[in-house]
Amino acid sequence: MRRAMARAALGDDDYGEDPTVNELQQAAAQLLGTEAALFVPTATMANLIAVMCHCPRRGAQLLLGRDAHLHVYEQGGAAQVAGVHSQALPELPDGTLDLEQLEFTIRQAHGSRYHPRPELVCLENTHSSAGGRALPLSYLQQVRRLTGRYGLRVHMDGARLLNAAVAQGVQPAHIAQHCDSVSLCFSKGLGAPAGAVLAGRRELVSEAWRMRKLLGGGLRQAGVLAAAAHMGLQRAGTTLRRDHRNARRFAQGVQELDSPLCSVDLAAVETNIVMVALKGSWPSPAELCARMQAVSEEEVAETGHAVSVLLFPWSSHSLRAVWHCDVSDRDTELATNKMRFVLRKCQERLEQDPAPGSPVGAAET
Q1: What's the DSSP call for residue 304?
Q2: Half-sphere exposure of 326 toward its Cβ, with a 13 Å CA cutoff?
Q3: What angle do CA 155, 137, 99 make, to 5 degrees?
Q4: With bands split at pLDDT 50, 70 and 90, how would you rate the model's confidence at 357?
Q5: Cα–Cα distances in Å, from 224 out to 45, 187, 220?
Q6: What is the pLDDT of residues 249-263, one digit of tens each?
Q7: Which helix (H) or strand (E) holds 343?
Q8: Cis peptide leading into 126, omega within 30 of 0?
């Protein structure tokens, strides 16, 4: 990938003259089945540009899930920058919205003098907070029909859209066809250092170019980044299938431990994300993540390996593990063995001290 970056043919992308960027944009548009695509530095910028293009009037209403990345993890850019009001709806466990509630919310605001004007529905696929679940194609069709009845548009935060396509065994275009625009990230599972695209109709992408410039996303010799993104795109099928396989191997390994401390819902492991649910008050997700990252002399002496695993404390009772192109089959095996070692040590400590997380001297209840 670094060699491809060094050898990339370059031009001024701010004038549309970078051949490597243009090649990537054409490839992405073809893959997604859209008329055009625009290269941008990040998927967060791609999502914000989409909102700005679809909701040009300040005070417009954007409907999305309350745990959606665009709503929770992008600093409220839709409000801060675009002046768009977000109406967050509760999601079902698989990351979908309740369609009856979605329609009720749209109908309630549609034509009202009191509510913001509903103009856009945003979906996330795969859904990160739901554990990398891929939105069912039938659900996307239903959302498209529903929004069409009220004249709303649909944007898909497709940062991991290719993971969804691989998991469902379909071409990415079969997913993107149900949306007016879609973002796709190159710096997650595809392994590029930066970059994303926003894809859709030619008119939308033309306006998106203006928004990119406004947000400071106009780049010069951007082919250096586009070359890496293009290589990641070309290798996506092989890379993501391996990530999915390893994520499931890890999930199965944790489940087979049958630990009283944690569990994994195998039915929810569809792509490269594994959510591990913790059952008791100790260890906390942060404590378990710290133990998975630390390496002790005891571990090395017992297992013969010094393994540090980076996990993320996702909530008060869960942690998240994500696979990417730099995590090998062997790494996955070592991570599973590390989890086995750490859980056993935690269980031994609990047997010695039933309340290891309690303050010293706390009264028994």
Answers
A1: S
A2: 8
A3: 70
A4: low
A5: 19, 14, 10
A6: 999 999 999 999 999
A7: helix 329-352
A8: yes
Tokens for 244, please give them: 């999915």
Q: Which pLDDT score, from 0 to 100, does residue 358 have?
A: 56
- Distance CA(109)–CA(130), nearest Å, equals 28
Segment 106-154, tens digit of pLDDT:
999 988 899 999 999 999 999 999 999 999 999 999 999 999 999 999 9
Out of 131-140, 188-197, 321-330, 348-357, which region has the weakest mean confidence (pLDDT)?
Answer: 348-357
**First-to-last CA distance in the chain?**
59
Share of the chain above pLDDT 90, in %: 94
Nearest-CA neighbor of 194 among 44, 345, 362, 9? 44
Residues 182, 156: contact at Cβ < 8 Å? yes
Check pLDDT > 50 for residue 360. no
3-state secondary structure the chain: CHHHHHHCCCCCHHHCCCHHHHHHHHHHHHHHCCCEEEEECCHHHHHHHHHHHHCCCCCCEEEEECCCHHHHCCCCHHHHCCCCEEEEECECCCCCECHHHHHHHHHHHCCCCCCCCEEEEEEECCECCCCCECCCHHHHHHHHHHHHHHCCEEEEEECCHHHHHHHHCCCHHHHHCCCCEEEEECCCCCCCCCCEEEEECHHHHHHHHHHHHHCCCCCCCCHHHHHHHHHHHHCHHHHHHHHHHHHHHHHHHHHHHCCCCEEECHHHCCCCEEEEEECCCCCCHHHHHHHHHCCCHHHHHHHCCCCCCCCEEEECCEEEEECCCCCCHHHHHHHHHHHHHHHHHHHHHHHHCCCCCCCCCCCCC
From 17, 13, 48, 21, select the one nearest 37 (Cα to Cα).
21
Report whether pLDDT(3) > 70.
yes
Return the bridge partners of 129, or none.
none
Q: In the predicted model, what is the mean pLDDT of the chain?
A: 95
Among candidates 282, 262, 278, which has minimal Cα distance to 355?
A: 282
pLDDT above 60 (res 313)? yes
| pTM (two decimals) | 0.94
Distance from chain centroid for Cα 55: 23
